[in-house]
Hints:
The protein is mostly beta strands. 0% of the residues lie in helices and 31% in strands.
Amino acid sequence: xxxxxxxxxxxxxxxxxxxxxxxxxTFIVAEFQGTFKARLVSVEALPQSDFEKPxxxxxxxxxxxxxxxxxVVSFVDRxxxxxxxxxxxxxxxxxxxxxxx
Length: 101
């Protein structure tokens, strides 16, 4: 008959107790005759400050927008129009199309 070395692993898990405290539980898990067996080895209390949820802000905090200073630089001199008034376009009425051929 062959004697086999049982394969076991140590497993640590953070568990919340019924009183609301968080504890670090250490288990040893081994396979014995085709089934897994777990045994509690130790329990260590953890400080509650590690598990308090941080305060979240639902809206982002307002940020100061950078002030943009824009300047317009013109690379073209002003062009003086030869026409003083736009009556040139209104002096002749538009012609209707003639239907006679």
